[in-house]
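ok posting inputs for the DAU job
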Amino acid sequence: MKNMLVTGGCGFIGSNFIRYLLRESNFSGNIINVDKLTYAGNPENLSDLENEFQDRYTFLKADLCDPDKIAQIFDRYSIDTICHFAAESHVDRSIVEPDAFIQSNIIGTFNLLECCRKNRDQIELFHHVSTDEVFGSLGKDGLFTETTPYSPNNPYSASKAASDHMVRAYHKTYGLPVTISNCSNNYGPYQFPEKLLPLMILNGLEEKALPVYGDGKNVRDWLYVRDHCSAVWLIMRKGKRGDTYNIGGNNEIENIKIVEMICDILDEIRKLEGIKSRKELIAFVKDRPGHDKRYAIDFSKLRHELDWMPEESFASGLRRTIEWYLDNTSWVNRVKSGEYQSWVESHYR
Ligand code: NAD
Ligand code: DAU
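and the output
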């Protein structure tokens, strides 16, 4: 693995992954980060690394839906490894405007796979980053395993399911060396404040309403983003080609419990004005259409085959995350005001 194309490296998990590769892993090759810079892509997420690793790190603004441009990048940088994060990732947006999800998640993945097929001899690995949402919703019991049938319930998860199938098909049909990972809900630094945790943290700080969908009893299995990154890198190095690995945190929590935990931590570190507890800000709102009730991951394959375990507990990870948002007010303000997007527009004309 000499020249790794990381797609979506300016987003939440992609930027954490590049930081992990450059700062913490044994990867010694080059990273070419290709990102379209949608509202969710922010080059500032990696600004601290750009100078430090300028000999090994390159950022290119490009859309995976532009096959000619992607082909040029493969040629110019002699790409031999791909770690594919780029996607439209927010379920609520996919319900309102599914089109971009079909384009980026399905067509974008297809274009990348085609580039790999055309450069088959030089490709060592295509790693596809996917989600547990492809399996649909669980009842009270049971866990998603790698053999759980796909049953996606919203346009986002359906588009990710389609991309997973295409990756698998390129392995079976063309012998492309691939690995796929299906991960549960991530949280941590640099997450765009439309997702549950950062939204609640930032609204809580400003003493704004905390909108909880439905009865708040939906369950997600939370994983600190660095643990996701370590798992992806391990699968890339040691995972069986053609195989899928589930990644999870053993950490099922109801949404309402998370919001209450956030309120308690914020109350402890930031004094309130006017109300006794931020829990008074919780507002139960209309449910998300097709809202999956429960996700929970069985990651025993990853644990037994590759000896992986998550390192961060939810209690410590949540506190770290809240502290990160408190310590990075300039990032928060630029993202919330949209200032980062004006900068992107003027910088990458
Ligand atoms: P994100 O929305 O924060 O980042 C996505 C990045 O992809 C952005 O930088 C965006 O600009 C880029 N992108 C989108 N369309 C593109 C295109 N057509 N061409 C090039 N770049 C494009 O998402 P995230 O939360 O970091 O998720 C990354 C990946 O991990 C996604 O594939 C997602 O399905 C998967 N995943 C996310 C989670 C989670 O909890 N966030 C959990 C499991 C899997
Ligand atoms: O499971 C993995 C998936 O996790 C990823 O594939 C997706 O990219 C990622 O966005 C995430 O999807 P969710 O829909 O689970 O995440 P979100 O943060 O949007 O919502 C988490 C839960 O909180 C969900 O049950 C909906 C609820 N929620 C969310 C928001 C934004 C609320 O109750 N209120 C809110 O305002």
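notes: Residues 89-91, 131-133, 184-185, 195-196, 199, 211-213, 218, 220, 255, 288, 295 surround DAU (ligand 2) (CB under 6 Å). The domain at 3-190+222-249+293-312 is CATH 3.40.50.720 (Rossmann fold).
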